[in-house]
Amino acid sequence: MLQDPNSNASFSYVIYHPQSGQCIQVSNDKKDMFMGNCSNSGRWTHDNDSTPIRMSSTGLCLKTSGEGLMPSLSTDCFGPQSSWRAISNTKLHLATITQDGKSLCLQVENSNSSKIVTNSCICTDGAPTCLEDTQSQWFELVETNTL
Fold first, then answer.
1. FRET label pair with 34: which of 51, 53, 70, 116, CA 20 to 30 Å apart?
2. Which of 36-58 are b and which e, b meaning 16 or more Cβ less than 10 Å from the residue's Cβ?
3. What DSSP state is assigned to residue 31?
4. What is the pLDDT of residue 129?
5. 66 in Cβ contact with 101 (< 8 Å)
6. More confident call, 98 vs 116
7. β-pairing, 140-144 with 12-17?
8. What pLDDT shows up at residue 6?
9. Mind giving me the DSSP string for 75-123?
10. Which residues contact 36 (CB under 8 A, 6 or more apart)?
11. In this predicted structure, what is the pLDDT of residue 35?
12. How many Å apart are CA 146 and CA 12, to the nearest integer?
């Protein structure tokens, strides 16, 4: 349960991956991100599109490190690599912009891995000719008020 009508806790978000039914978790040392049970996942804040996604417990921001690399948690919350927005017609791609203007999306590394990376966003322009499977890049911020 992610929302409890009887809870007095403030709202935050989990970063949910619909294909797997899991959420992004962060290791205790804050160096690794991986998919795991949503009840144990990190809680995040996000004001609106093109703003940082911050870990509620630390205030550190989710930041892209480059294509094919795991995102990191950083104190640098004001650069374009720390500004995230939902893109595509479905709004199921969370993307940031690299220093050279390229959109990178959160992605599960592969079907045999729970590791999170950022890669070039695929099929986000709504073109009906795109035949690639985009589900590995489907992530959404889901509001929660449970602890």
1. 51
2. bebeebbbbbbeeeebbbbbeee
3. -
4. 75
5. no
6. 116
7. antiparallel
8. 74
9. S--SSGGG-BEEESTTS-EEEEE-TTS-EEEEEES-TT--BEEEEE--S
10. 22, 23, 24, 25, 114
11. 94
12. 9
User: What pLDDT is attached to residue 63?
Assistant: 94
Instruction: Answer whether 14's CB lies under 8 Å from 144's CB.
Output: yes
The 10s digit of each residue's pLDDT in 27-80 is 888 888 999 998 888 899 999 888 999 999 899 999 998 899 999 999 999 888
Degrees, nearest 5: CA angle 121-127-133:
50
Q: Collapsing DSSP states into helix, strand and coil, what is residue 127?
A: coil
CATH code that applies to domain 12-144: 2.80.10.50
Q: Helix, strand, or coil here: 136?
A: helix
The per-residue pLDDT for 1 is: 58
Alpha carbon 54 to its chain centroid, in Å, reads 10
Other CB atoms within 10 A of residue 99 CB:
10
Angle at 107 between CA 39 and CA 4, to 5 degrees: 25
| Sequence spans of domains, the chain | 12-144
pTM score, whole prediction = 0.88
Q: Is 60 exposed, middle or buried (0-12, 13-18, 19+ CB in 10 A)?
A: buried
Rg over CA atoms, the chain: 15
